[in-house]
Every structure is written in C-alpha cells, then in structure tokens.
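User: I'm curious what two different proteins look like when written out as structure tokens. Can you demonstrate?

Assistant: Sure. I'll show them one after the other, since each token string lines up with its own sequence. Here's the first protein:
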Amino acid sequence: MLTMLREKYRFCDGFSRRAFLEIGSSAVGGISLPAMLRAEEQQNSGSSKKSVIMVYLSGGLAHQDTFDLKPEAPDGIRGEFKPMDSSVPGIQVGELLPKMASVMDRVALVRSIVGLRDEHTSYQNITGYPMRMSRIEGRPNFGSVIGQLQDPSQSTIPAYVDMFPTMQHRPYNIPGPGFLGAQYRGVKADGEDLASMKLRYISGMRFTNRQQLLHQVNQYQRDRDHGAYDGMDSAYRRAFDVLMSSKLVDALDVEQEDVKTLERYGRGSPKHLGDGAPMWNDQLLAARRLVESGVRCVTVAYGFWDTHGNNFGQLRERLPLFDQGISALIEDIYQRGLDRDVTVVVWGEFGRTPKINPGAGRDHWARVNGALLAGGRMRVGQVLGSTDKMAGEAKSRPVHYQDVLATVYHNLGIDPHAAVKDPAGRAFRILQPEARVIPELV
C-alpha cells in the first residue's frame, strides 16, 4: 500500500491534518495496482463522461423535520420546526434549510421511498440489497460495478474513489466489491486525524517496506529517463503513471479552490459524530473536484443522524452545516456546467418515526424515506410522491429504493439489468428485474 501525503493544512477546529490517498495492494487482498489496471483494460468499454456523487447520511435523517414537514399533524408528531417556501412554488422545506430552499429548482425531491429494511447499514443504499443478502451473495457496491463497466476519462484517474471514513458502527462502512473481486475496490481517499499516520502505528518492517517502495519508485523515475519505461506492459505503465501523477491528489486538495468557494461550502471537521461519519464539507468539495478530474463515482459518508434522543437539538446543531454544504455542492454542479453529466444523490438508510419518543427523539422508521437527486439531466424542481398526514406511510407514488439506483445507473449509461462478471467469468444481474428507472426524472 502506498500512502501519498499532501502538505499540512489547518481546519477551523484548530487541528493540523493531512489528506492522504491510499492506492492499494495489501488493502485490497494482495491485488496490485498493475493487476487492477490490467483488469480495467480487459473489462472496460465505456467512453462517456458521466459520473455520480453519492452522499450517504449515516444513521437515517428525520424526513419529517427536513424535507417532508407536517405542520398540521398533532402534537407529538409534527415536531418543532416550521416549513418555509422554496424557490419552487408549492415546495416547502424545513426552516433550518434556507440555502436548500434556494436551490430546490435544481433538486428532484423524492418523498416516498419504500422497500427499505430496518437495518443500520449502508448496504441498501450502496449495493441495492439488504446487508445479509449482500454478504451471502457477495453483492458489490455500485461504485465497483461502475468501475468494471466504465473506464475513467483519463488513464491516470481511477474510475471509483471512496471517501467513506472507517466508522465505529461497522455496517455503516462502505460495502466491498463482492464477487467482482478486489481489483474493483474503490481507491480509498481518507481524511483521518494526523495521529493515525504517526510512526507509532506502523511496525518497523512496514516502515522499511514503505522506504523500499519509495526507493523503487525513485528507481522507476531514473529508468524512465533512460528509456526503460518503453519496455513495460501497458498495465504497469498506467500503474506508474497513476503513482507519479499529481492529478488525483490535486483533485483532493481543496486548498487550491478560491477562498469564496471554501467559505460557500463551509469547512466542518473530520471528527466523527457518534459512531457514524463526520460532517466534513471539504469532502463534498473534493467530490466535485474528483468528478471534474474524470472520476466516475465518488462515495461520501456524511454526518450522523441517528437521533433517538434530543432529535431537535441535534438537528439545530447539524442542519445548518448540512444546508450549507449540500446546497453548495448542488449549486456548483449547475454553475460549472456539470449538471448534464454528474448525478448527485443524497439519502440515508431509512426515515424516523412519526411519533416523538419520551426522550424528544425519533426512532428508526423504514416504511418510508426521502432522497434528494440533482444533475444527471434529470427533471428537477419537482417533488415525487407524498406521505400521509403523519409522514408515516407513502400516500402516493411509492418509489422502491432500488429504483433510485436504477436511475443512477441509467444516468451513467448503464443498463441496471445488465450483467457484471466475477473473475471466473460468471455473470450476475446488477439489480433485480423489478427495479425500474424513475420515468418522472428521466
């Protein structure tokens, strides 16, 4: 494993940190980068510029306190927040989301997602299948599927970059490539605390190995200057080009953005919330930079929304940063002319209970959930589906969660019912035959 380090920079929490990029060998089951790239050369046939940013809200956001308020519901159901008008007549959002209200003309809001199970995992959102089924059948995450079916636009940029941190609640963490094989695991771009990189966490042998690897890379540079590069096969050439290129690391370096853009996104912090993800808005900006650089799929875990207690206090604290970062990402996609090619999806594993519990919280509620979609040439500025007066059941136009993923695949030019192949050549359908592209969006 090679860890590529950037210069130190300082966040608003006062800590000095580094963004680092792991390009895998040991982290992906011993599959080397040249082997991964060789597999891409054999498998990939796509040439489009389509891409997706998937933002996973770990823990499950309270839909009835954000994008599906029920002001006419009785006490104990309706919550503490008032609805506010948005940029689209007839569409209202919660009062803590004024920036999101201003960009709703660029958002398709789905209020009636069904089919989810009550499980605290990212599997349903990321693979399209429940966790147990995914593990038994080896279902890959959708980024790995994209990585097999679509190549990056540039040889020095990977198809799939995963920005999920390692979360304490393990099922929140990104599902693996499953039966596709380790060569389709996403390139890991993580931003953990600098302490995790200190030498005391690295054995003497590992440190020696890293020194040897750096020596080999330096030797490659010398050999390339003397013409030895021409004798390598194409996969090894690409591997070295990735290692020597700064494009991916530059894309992750949000400090290259102007100050106004950084301020518009807000910074947040890499500090984890609860046992879920941090609210680190730099990752949202980095995701936009990554797709601009040619990455096909970026996955981001964002925030911790498991508000069993003090739901309204936690949302008052966290929603303003959510509002700032997610609205800036959506705004950027359109302002920079990426909306025809880049799809943005923001959702969690389920909604929250209509009834407020004795601890002023809302518990798990898998019967209905919501999602935000933008870009991808979709028909935005609309609400799809509705819930009953308690926000507890889908009242109209139920949308199965697999349909959301089917729509994402469609936007990327991938048939959601196509087959992907494992290393033995066996074919597996991406999604179930019942999964349908959402016609109102495309």
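Here's a second, unrelated protein for contrast:
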Amino acid sequence: MIETVFGEISSDFKSERLSDLCDRENGIQTGPFGSQLHQKDYVTDGTPIITVEHLGENRIIHDVDLPCVNESDRERLSKFALHPGDIVFSRVGSVDRRALVREEEDGWLFSGRCLRVRPDPNLIDSGYLSYFFGLPAFKKYINAIAVGATMPSLNTQILSNIPIYFPGLAEQRAIAGILGAFDDKIELNRRMNQTLEAIIATIFKSWFIDFDPVRIKAEKIECKLPTHILDLFPNSFEVSDLGNVPSGWDTCSFLNLAELLSGGTPKTSASEYWNGGIPWVSAKDVSNAKGSFILETEKTISDLGLNNSSTKILPPLTTIITARGTVGSYCLLGRAMAMNQTNYGLKVTTYPVSKETGW
C-alpha cells in the first residue's frame, strides 16, 4: 500500500493526472458562458440541457424539469454536447456532485454551472473513473481544493491536476461492471418506489380529500372497497369552516397536533463542522425528494457543527416543508437528520380521533 491524498491505495495501481487520461481535444470542458446561453433561449421541447440539480448519485436525473433548446441552438452549442461515457461535475456549490452520461443522454447539452470530463477509453474506463470520483475520500479532497470562501467552485485547471489511481483496464471494467449492476438495481427500486408512492398519493386523495368512501356510503354506490375499509368511514357529511367534512371528524390547525421545528447552519468557514456523519437537509434536498422519503442529503455536518449551531437532530417521519426558494415543497425524513433555516419541520405530537369511529 502507498499513502496518497485519498488515503492508502494499492501500490499496484498506476497514477496519472486526470487531464492525461482524457481525450486530447475535448478532455475537460466548462459549460457555455451566460453570453452564449440565455434564459430566453429555452424551449419546452428540444435538446435537454442538464445543470447541477440534474446530477444524481452517478446518474443524470430525468424526472426534474429539464430546460431545452431548439435545433439551431443545439448546433450552435455542439461544443457542449454530451456523449456516453462523459462525466459531468457540478462547477459551483456542491463540487463533489457528478454523474455518468449514459446512452439515453447522448447528444444532450450541459450548462455553464457544470464541467464535462471526457475520459480516453483506451486509457481508463469511464465507469471506473466515475466510481473513483464517488469515493468519500475523493469528495473530501475535491471540496478541500475547490476555490472560493463563500461558494466553492472548480475550474478546468483544478480538475486537470487531480491525481487518479487505477489498475489495468480489464480490472477497471470488471469493477465498473459489478458496481454498475448494483446501481441499476438501486435505480429500478427507486422507480418502483415512485410508482408505489403515486398509488399511495392517489388513495390518500380519494379517501381523505375527496372523501370517496363517505360518498359511496352516503349515496349507496356499489364499489369494490372491502367492507372492513368502508366501516372505518361515516355514512354522511356535516358542514364545517372548511366545507363539507365526514360526520364526526374535527377540524383544527395542524399546529394543534404537531410541534413546529426550525433549523440552522453551522459556520461555513469552520471546516471541522462539515462533512461529518449527520445528514443536513436544505431546501434543495426537499425539492428533489418530491414529497417522498429522504434518506441522503447533499451535505453533512459533524457533531461539532451540530453542537455549535442552532440546528438540531430531527427524528424519522418528521415532515419537512420549505420556507424559502421553492416554498411549499415537502418530504418525510427517512432517518434522523438535521436541517437548515430554509425549512420548517412538523413533528406530530397528537393524533386526531374521530368522535364516531374512535380512530
């Protein structure tokens, strides 16, 4: 083993600068400047342009709104086209975010907030390289060398000089193949979860917003709902301040049932407060979760960061609602986490009970 900036690595591995492992003509490229691409250039249908919010964990996220450009702008910006095997980095902010470009993104473009790395396939496998970029030690290193006190940023020179450690090509491809199979399984499970969440949302709306089971009983409509489900609902409505609600159901402010929680941000200049083991939720994390459970966050804080700021640990199943930016986005915590001041937390303390059914 040898000691490197990433910790101990096998002495059998070779080492090269990233730029020496990339395509000679288009190896490391910054996205188009603002003067080359304006907001007014975007169209609803055309060639997609990915930016930082589309960079998932080694995968480009398709289910976040993708800006597009028309055919003439695509040709004008062809220098910034993506090909399978390219790796796209966040250039500003969360500089450790990256995603591998796959066949379905061939020909897409990338924005000025990103950097594109185009590995030479004769020298290094792009899948292996992208997983190398995903190592916790690499993420810690790239955050440390990024420039900018308030907003970390990367440039082509910084990326070019990063040392890369790698075995032979055959071994690289084997590593990438195994890890890629796990990634594909994770993505399949994510899509299945999205389908289940859509079904749950439909049922919730039917039962607790449209009150379909109550209407079915009140109007004696034939339905396929099991009797034990229908028995949980009353058979009539009563008037309330919110309109017609099921008989026996109460209405009140949610704050009568839940504790309102706030967050905070550890001092950004104190490196010892960051990159610890505590997930730290921002408004962007909540927006990306799209009403689902959130298990991982863009940034993490340390115990020191937690103890020296106004943020606090929130328990699983706390509802998080954004208060700034995209106001009103929400999600549920899938595990204990902290959050910043752009969000509010709602921790249920009292559960409502129907006067008629007792649930």
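A detail about the second structure: DSSP finds nine helices and 22 strands in the chain.
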